Amino acid sequence: MTDSDLCFLPAIELARLIRSRAVSAREVTEAHLRQIDRFNPRVNAIITLVPDLALAAASRADEGLARGHIIGPLHGLPMAHKDLVPTAGIRTTFGSPILAEFVPQQDGLIIERLRAAGAITIGKTNVPEFGAGSQTYNTVFGETLNPYDLTKTCGGSSGGAAVALACGMIALADGGDQGGSLRNPASFCNVVGLRPSPGRVPSWPNFSAWSTLGVEGPMARTVTDTALLLSVLAGGDARSPISFDDGARFDQPLQRDFEGVRIAWSRNLGILPVDPRVTSVIDSRRGTFVDLGCVVDDTEPDFQEADEVFKVMRGVNFEVSLGTMYDAQPDKFKETIAWNIEEGRRLTAGRIAAAERLRTDLFHRVRRFMETYEFLVMPVSQVPPFDVGVRWVTEGNGESMHTYIDWMKSCYFISAIGHPAISVPCGFTPEGLPIGVQIVGRHHDDLGVLQLAFAFEQATQSWRRRPGIVNG
């Protein structure tokens, strides 16, 4: 096989070849390292590379397989981890000059699970500073570029992960999502990003362990690979107080009959400014859901209070997570993060309490709505990928955006209710920019979301269109 053959094989197929010893873990790792050498200088997705560690781990993987050792489902698969997740012995900067040389002494919980499953750590992927803002740039490593158009952003905060996947530099990627950080870069880079139900994937270390706003989860080039990775990451852990295990299995075939399943089809949740190029691409795929047997209605729940709910909860999280560090070195934080921390500190007990009440009302309103509709289908992002020099979108479809996250309401409104949601490749704008469609499921129905995403993916095959830089 050529490097391109190996690097773009679905991860589930690549794992099968390694298990059967048709190809070695070392050969796979070497091919991905060469792919990184070829394409990473053009996109800046992987910002810390550990080739010697990766090759040594791959050799151990091959030796273990030859001796008949029990192997995990990700045995020999190269991965790079988001630079917000601690990796023992490997620099983890959080995209911040404060932590530019930080080397953790222990792994984060999801890294423990990935290593136990046999994944090969190949490096770290770029992020915005402390993951804030869906545009991947920082003063430590610079910007990560969209491989479908090098003048555009890849989104964020899991932007480096999405680009590395799109370019065949890794087989699978981990990421996190508070306001859209798995879904937005997946949409912008033509890959799949799943925001699991809060607690489905336990998170540790975590300064805000009881919060349901931020989650960790899987990203891949296909829905089946995403489900494979979720099967490794999911499950309860005593270090994460909101974690749970309801017995759902994700390492199973995703085929399902969708005849008669009711879908709510929303272009803008009734209140959001959405770029017509996004709407056009998503509307062009409505018939796909009909062809799958779904009953598709133009409707959406009432999300009027979602903005207040999310921004209050986000402000609390910023103060909890970064407040102490900000007090020690306030001049080292980018302006938007400083603003978010200060906004958190200006919150009163009354406003926080009111937001909690609103969130409860919003959850039950959506719950009742989704007793009728099993899924809500809508845009992931309100705009297509934009110029990489633009730090955040200030205008959308004729409306002004007042904060650096307002253009991501189509994602963070869903974060506010805690339902699982996935971004799956949907199509391209006339300029060739990727657009994802967002599928939102019922409370805790991560499997249902993956099943509908899989059926849609099989019918459309949009994921097969690779970036021009790797085709050329």
**How many distinct beta strands?**
17
The gyration radius over C-alpha positions equals 21 Å
CATH topology: the name is Amidase signature (AS) enzymes
Spell out the CATH superfamily.
Amidase signature (AS) domain
Could you say how many structural domains there are in total? Answer: 1
Instruction: State the CATH architecture.
Output: Alpha-Beta Complex
Instruction: Tell me the number of helical segments per DSSP (H or I, 4 or more residues long).
Output: 16
Beta-strand fraction estimate: 15-25%
End-to-end C-alpha gap: 18 Å
Using the coordinates above, name the CATH class. Answer: Alpha Beta
Largest pleated sheet: 11 strands, mixed
Please state the average pLDDT score. 97
Shape designation:
globular
Instruction: Please give the share of residues in helix.
Output: 25-40%
Instruction: Give the low-confidence spans.
Output: none
Alpha-beta classification: alpha+beta
Protein described:
This protein is of the alpha+beta class. It has a single domain, classed as Amidase signature (AS) domain (Amidase signature (AS) enzymes). The protein is 39% helix and 16% strand. It contains 16 helices and 17 strands. Helix 6 packs parallel to helix 7, helix 8 runs antiparallel to helix 15 and helix 11 crosses helix 13 (349-372). It starts with a helix and ends with a helix. The mean pLDDT is 97.
